[in-house]
Amino acid sequence: xxxxxxxxxxxxxLQQERGISFEEIVFHIQxxxxxxxxxxPNQERYPNQKISAVIVEGYV
Length: 60
Hints:
Strands 1-2 form a two-stranded antiparallel sheet. It is 33% helix and 18% strand. The chain has one domain (8-54). The chain contains 2 helices and 2 strands, in the order ααββ.
């Protein structure tokens, strides 16, 4: 099983601004709704970070 971690303050902000939480995203990833994984485009600032494309309620 993969380990996921996130900043609790960013999770609250995500919930307020987008109506979804990191917990929900992880649920969808574990359910097989992750369709692609990209390297973060700014590897200088965010080395080794990835971006996941995840289907949630018909949206990516």
